[in-house]
Amino acid sequence: MNNYYKHIGKVLISSEELDKRIGELADRINTEYKDSNSLVIVGILKGSFVFLGDLIKKINIPVKVEFIRVSSYEGTSSTGKMKLNTPFTGDIKGKDVILVEDIVDTGLTISFLNDLFKKEQARSIKVCTLLSKPGSRKVHVNVDYEGFKIGNDFIVGYGLDYNGMYRNLPYIALYNQKIDDK
Ligand code: IMP
C-alpha cells in the first residue's frame, strides 16, 4: 500500500486549484454555447473521465455527453498513428462538439479526432484540455479551452495514469520513475 505512493513526487496542481480553474473553463463554455441547442461533449478515454465528470457538473446549459476511446499503435518504433479502439457510435452530425482531453502532449490524438469529426460533419469542433505540454508537440493543434500549461515532466493523478495506476489521486503530481521499488 505505501509503495503505491513511493513514486509520487511534488504536487503540481492541488485539488483546490483544479476546482477553481475548471469552474472558469465551465463559465466560458456556459457563456459561449448558451445559444447552441446541440452541444455534445466528447470525453477521450480513459484519462479524461475525472476532469469531464467535474466539468459537466459545472455546465448549466443543455448538453449531451459521449465518450471515445483511441490509442496509438506502436511497432518496434512508435509510428504515432492513431486508431479507434471501438467504433464511435455517437450522433454528432450537425452538432457543436467539444473534445475533452486530460492532456495534450504530442497533439496526435486531438489532430486525429479533429479529422474524424470533420468527416462525421460536426457543425463545429473545439478542444478543451485540462493540461497542455506545449514543449512536446509533434503536430500543431488549436486548443480552445486550456486549464494549465505544464513542462515536459511525466505527471499522474486526476485521471492521468502510469500503467493504469494513480488515476484516483485528487491532485496532479510528478511521477518519479527512478525510485527503487524494493
Ligand atoms: P497526445 O497529445 O496524442 O500525445 O496524447 C495525449 C495522451 O498521452 C493523453 O491523453 C495521456 O493519456 C497521455 N499522456 C501524455 N503525457 C502524459 C503524462 O505526463 N502523464 C500521463 N499520461 C500522459
Cofactors, ions and other ligands in the entry: inosinic acid
Give the CATH level 1 class. Answer: Alpha Beta
Low-confidence stretches: none
Overall geometric form: globular
Provide the CATH architecture.
3-Layer(aba) Sandwich
Structural Rg? 17 Å
- Count the beta strands: 9
Tell me the strand order in the biggest sheet.
4-3-2-5-6-7
Q: What is the total number of structural domains?
A: 1
Structural write-up:
It is a single chain. By secondary structure, the chain is of the alpha/beta class. It has one domain (3-32, 40-70, 87-175): Rossmann fold, CATH 3.40.50.2020. Helix content is 24%, strand content 33%. The strands form 2 sheets. It has a 6-stranded mixed beta sheet. The site of inosinic acid has 14 residues, from strand 5, helix 4 and strand 8.
Describe this structure in a few short sentences:
This protein is 24% helix and 33% strand. It contains four helices and nine strands; from the N terminus they run αβαβαβββαββββ.
Write the layout of secondary structure elements.
Elements (H helix, E strand, L loop, with lengths): L1 H5 L1 E6 L1 H18 L6 E7 L3 H9 L6 E11 L3 E7 L11 E9 L3 H12 L4 E9 L12 E5 L5 E2 L15 E4 L7
Parallel strand pairs: 2-3, 2-5, 5-6, 6-7
Antiparallel strand pairs: 1-9, 3-4, 8-9
Helix pairs in contact: 2-3
